[in-house]
Amino acid sequence: MKKKPFHFLWIGQSFANFGDVFYIVSVVSYLYHLTSKAMAAALVPFFVTLSLFISGIVAPIFFEKYKLKTLLSYGQLCKTFLLLFLSLFLQWGAEHHIAIVYVFVSLIAFLDGINNPIKNSLVPFIVSKEEILKANSFLNTLDQFIKLSAWPIGSLIVSAGSPFLLIHITLLFYIVSSILMFLLPIQEHTKKNTVQDKGLKNFLLSIRLGWEYTWRNVHAKSISFMSFFEGIGNGVWISAILYMYVKEQLHVGEEWWGYINSVFFGGMVIGGLLSVTFSQSVEKNQQFFVLFGPFCIAAVTLLFGTTTHGALALLYSALYGIIEQWKVICLQTILQKNARMDALPHVFSVQGVISSVTFGISALLMSFIADVYGIRFSFYLSVCCFFISGWISYRQRKIWSYKESQKGEITGTIL
Questions:
Q1: Contact 318, 261 (CB under 8 A)
Q2: Which fold has domain 216-404?
Q3: Cα-atom radius of gyration of the chain, to the nearest Å?
Q4: Do residues 347 and 331 touch, judged by C-beta distance below 8 A?
Q5: What is its main location (predicted)?
């Protein structure tokens, strides 16, 4: 992983990822202090998720028309300008036009929904096939570390300074990321538009491409079904459920909600570091991690959801993070090695849509079950969802083997 393009990619995306968290912290803080209403702040993640869902659906239209590097670099540049305008708007008095703040947040999230599939699609293009899993492990570890550290760092900056200071820091990070994306040394082939129709038909055909690619590829289709059920199961880890869990089952202070979240992300960082260190062993045993990962997560979720001891809850949370990271890295690598290069952005875009849909469904479903039937029943449902994912994985067990993945060819050209 000593290639120049990979360094440009991970450094540039690290600045962008830090900036993404920082600006959300600043906007949420600003809206809460301006309105003193939790709903005003809670609408921020709602609009972010909604925009990610919409952009995930329409992203194939852009993939069919523009090169990946063009989308990634100009997308980051547009985010920079949007953040600049948002900063000016907040400073000049947004208290009378709060709705416009949500428009800016939605537009930035929309661009993220297009850029996110591109980041994953570029990995098999800029590193050798033997280094894909190691590269994924490194990038996922870095991403989880940023999620773990950016929130407390951003909150500290807001407390010591102001939301505007944090936005200005984010703006600087976005500028650096934009420059690195434009300098990303990738030679792309001329874009070949596979959709020749015009107007609405062209629009619908472009959107359909990603779903057709996913359905035709046995790896992508299996992973999509697994992601759907696991996304529902992951609903027990949303803030509302964990807050109720801490108060009603563990009977400890509210600060334990933060402890559980931190330990979970810490577990994912540990899992990623282990994958980087032992990348060859993890890859050769990827079938084991994909087959038994969902069942192990189901067992850990059951233990977590039934324990009344805080220390054990932290332990199970860390284990969950480690196992989840191993499984995700292996599935991501398998997908990258067994899908055509020109299909990867479309397939990852579909994965993003599935994640957005399941997040919304699971948040409502798990909260409803917890309120009506109790917190433990929501964890029981989560366990069932992970078992279904494991059953799907077991039925397709042959396609997860290391030897089968090595046979897969990354065909096609970069868009």
A1: no
A2: Growth Hormone; Chain: A; (1.20.1250)
A3: 21
A4: no
A5: membrane
d(CA 157, CA 44): 20
Q: What single-letter DSSP state applies at residue 95? A: T
Tokens 């929904």 label which residue?
113
Give the CATH number of domain 1-181.
Answer: 1.20.1250.20
d(C-alpha 197, C-alpha 243), whole Å: 51
Per-residue pLDDT of the chain (415 residues; tens, 9 = 90+): 567 888 899 999 999 999 998 988 888 888 877 777 767 777 888 888 889 889 988 888 888 888 888 899 999 999 999 999 988 888 876 667 788 888 999 999 999 999 988 988 888 888 888 888 889 999 999 998 998 888 888 888 888 888 888 899 999 999 999 999 999 887 665 555 555 555 566 667 777 878 888 888 899 999 999 999 999 998 888 767 887 888 888 888 877 877 888 899 899 999 999 999 998 888 888 889 999 999 999 999 999 999 999 999 999 999 999 999 999 999 999 998 888 888 888 889 898 889 888 988 888 888 888 888 888 999 999 999 999 999 999 998 888 876 655 555 444 333 3
Q: For tokens 């939790």, name the residue.
A: 38
The answer to whether 410 touches 129, Cβ cutoff 8 Å, is yes
- What is d(CA 282, CA 264) in angstroms, rounded to the nearest whole number? 21
Q: What single string gives the DSSP state of each residue in 380-403?
A: HHHHHHHHHHHHHHHHTGGGGSHH
Phi-psi region of 10 (alpha: psi -120 to 50; beta: other; left: phi over 0): alpha
Which tokens in the block code for residue 43?
């609408």
Q: With 0-12 CB in 10 A as exposed, 13-18 as middle and 19+ as buried, what is 246?
A: buried
CATH 1.20.1250.20 residue window(s) in the chain: 1-181, 216-404
Residue 265 DSSP SS3? helix
Report the alpha-carbon distance of residue 246 to residue 61 in Å, rounded.
Answer: 44
The DSSP secondary structure of 64-88, one letter per residue, reads HHS-HHHHHHHHHHHHHHHHHHHHH
The residues, ordered by sequence, that sit 6+ positions from 7 with a Cβ below 8 Å of its Cβ are none
Quote the crossing angle between the two packed helices 132-160 and 310-337, to the nearest 10°.
130
